[in-house]
Amino acid sequence: MTPERLGLLWGVTVFAGASARLLAALTGLPGVVLLLLSGLLIGRSGLGLVEPLDLGQGLGTVVGLLVSLVLFDGGLNLRLPGDTIKATVLRISVVRLVLSLGGALLAAHWLAGLNWSVAAVYSAIVLATGPTVVTPLIQQIRLAPPLGDVLEAEGLVLEPVGAVLALLLLELLLGNLHGWRELAYGLLARLGGGVMIGLTFGWLLSEGLRRLPPDPSVGLPLQITLGMLFLMFGACEWLLPESGLPASVAAGVVVGRRPATHAAQLDEVIRELARLAITMLFPLLAADVSWAELSPLGWGGVSCVLVLMLVVRPVAVSLATVGQPLDWRQKLFMGWLAPRGIVTAAVASLFAIRLEQAGVLGAGRLQGLVFLTILMTVGLQGLTAQPLAKVLGLVAPAAEDGLSASASEAAEQSLSITAEPGQ
User: Is residue 350 situated within a structural domain?
Assistant: First the structure.
């Protein structure tokens, strides 16, 4: 690929993503939906201006580094008040891990026609709700706490687990792993090793930031943070493939909770960089969708995704939240909102290539079914999430009333400061 063509690819991709963001700001439509549509427009299903596979092996590297930034930002801003909410997230993650894997496996085999081995890989790939999709939706809806925190935490926990498990199932399918014992050991080693490396790098980074001289500019702390983050991710992928994802989350959690680490300064800049990463990645990976891969799935593929959305997810959430401090409205919203995101798309694209090279039947159907899952979950849930949250009364009052109400409330609060200084 010529440098000129490569520059055009990135130029078209970033411009399409930025245009989608602008349109979302002007119309109020969900940004993730418009980002997805922009990728379809410029990619193989539309104008054919962008072909992600032209990046070759660099595609996985670019996607990995940018995803690590998004997950680090998620860990940096993750706030789970109280042990009860933390226990809720853990329980939801464990129950969903079991039920969603089993439900997706059966649906992919019986409804979409994938063989058992490829269906198992699919079930792991689509396990997690993507933080790259959930977080922008939550920010746009402005959900009343703690529901937004729980949804974000669920994605941050299960995203690395799903990616690592999918890789190991792929290796098992290709014959590089022998038996479930090696798979279980590999899963624990990558997740545990990634978390330990992330905690170590996070502590080193926080200690380094603490020792920086006071500076109103965020430039040097930002450069150090990105340097350490990308070094950590590269080291993880070199030592234990796919362990960079849990490491990124763990490092973000440590830095976000250490005192005097410039976290307040870094927070907004890192968040904007994460948004930029999403703006670049979503159109790029959506451009890889081909209608030729989706059409053979037919109604079987659509039925498979609908079963995941309307049966598997609600049942898993209902069982996981029994006795938990969430009311029926919050449970209903959680049972509906489960869009898949960038990591899901990236893993599907890279795995399909490896399966095709190995001559495994069903590689194209696997990628098509994964992207159909992304299209349906992001499209249907992205468009309906905000109206549903408003109907259920789950939107923060300031968000419901709009800018004028927010300004009025702020004025009232400022007038009452003298009379009620404790508020």
Answer: yes
Integer CA distances (angstroms), 161 to 40, 79, 109, 191, 317, in order: 28, 20, 22, 7, 18
Alpha-helical regions (H) of 179-218: 180-210
Whether the Cβ atoms of residue 307 and residue 100 lie closer than 8 Å to each other: no
Most confident of 14-18, 147-151, 282-286, 291-295: 14-18
Distance between CA atoms of residues 86 and 314, nearest Å:
20
CATH of the domain at 256: 1.20.1530.20
Q: Are 345 and 285 in contact (CB under 8 A)?
A: yes
Q: Are 160 and 253 in contact (CB under 8 A)?
A: no
Report the SS3 class of residue 343. helix
Residues 6+ apart with CB under 8 A from 185: none
Counting the structural domains of the chain, the total is 1
Angle subtended at Cα 131 by Cα 325 and Cα 320, rounded to the nearest 5 degrees: 30
- 406 domain-assigned: no
Interatomic CA distance for residues 337 and 96, integer angstroms: 14
Q: Is 81 exposed, middle or buried (0-12, 13-18, 19+ CB in 10 A)?
A: exposed
Q: Cβ(138)–Cβ(224) under 8 Å?
A: no
> What is the tens place of the pLDDT at every residue in 111-140?
998 888 889 989 988 887 877 788 788 888
Q: Is residue 202 a part of any domain in this protein?
A: yes
Mean pLDDT lowest among 17-21, 106-110, 135-139, 204-208 = 135-139
Which residues does 344 contact at the CB level (< 8 Å), separation at least 6?
Answer: 125, 126, 128, 130, 162, 370, 373, 374
What is the residue range of 275's domain? 23-50+63-396
- DSSP string across 75-91: HHT----HHHHHHHHHH
What confidence tens digit (pLDDT) does each residue in 390-418 have?
A: 999 988 776 444 444 443 344 334 334 33
Q: What is the pLDDT of residues 52-84, one digit of tens each?
A: 877 777 777 888 888 889 889 888 877 776 667
Indicate whether 126 belongs to any domain: yes
